[in-house]
Amino acid sequence: MAIEIGTRAPQFTLYNTEKQEVNLKDYQGKNVLILFFPLAFTGVCTKELCTVRDDIGNYENAASAVLGISIDSLFVLEKFKAEQNIGFPLLSDFNKTTAKSFDVLYEEFPAFGMQGVSQRAAFIVDKEGVVQYAEVCPTPGDLPNFEAITNKLKELE
Fold it and tell me: Which residues are catalytic?
């Protein structure tokens, strides 16, 4: 079932590239932009995360944080993060539990016959854990609406 605005965000615990557990509840008291992306090192995913990296001030401040989540292993994400100089946490959803709980998992990815790849999606979870923005991109080639995301984060500050 799709995550709707006004509902509580599903809780999750995933490993980051430093091999530490990260819980959504660790960010209570902050607004959190959660970006699900299909696969590290692909063109559109690199563009998406580098766009956020380059405009990090629009997304991350004292009141907000950014988390990137993909089904890649934490080792792949560690290399991707280093090569792209990403300054926010990338989390491995290797077992696909978080993508399933947010209802953003392709049964079959539109390319190469891969199964169990997350869709490109953006969610803003407010300081109380309630979803205030939800966008699931129609195709893996589409990017989230960064202007709408920025506006919603400013509204929530």
Answer: 45
3-state secondary structure the chain: CCCCCCCECCCCEEEECCCCEEEHHHHCCCEEEEEECCCCCCHHHHHHHHHHHHCHHHHCECCEEEEEEECCCHHHHHHHHHHHCCCCCEEECCCCHHHHHCCCEECCCCCCCCCCEECCEEEEECCCCEEEEEEECCCCCCCCCHHHHHHHHHHHC
The answer to whether domain 13-156 has CATH 3.40.30.10 is yes
62-110 per-position pLDDT tens digit: 789 999 999 999 999 999 999 999 999 999 999 999 999 999 998 776 7
Say whether pLDDT at 117 is over 90: no
CA distance 121 to 38: 9
Domain coordinates in residue numbering, the chain: 13-156
pTM above 0.85, yes or no: yes
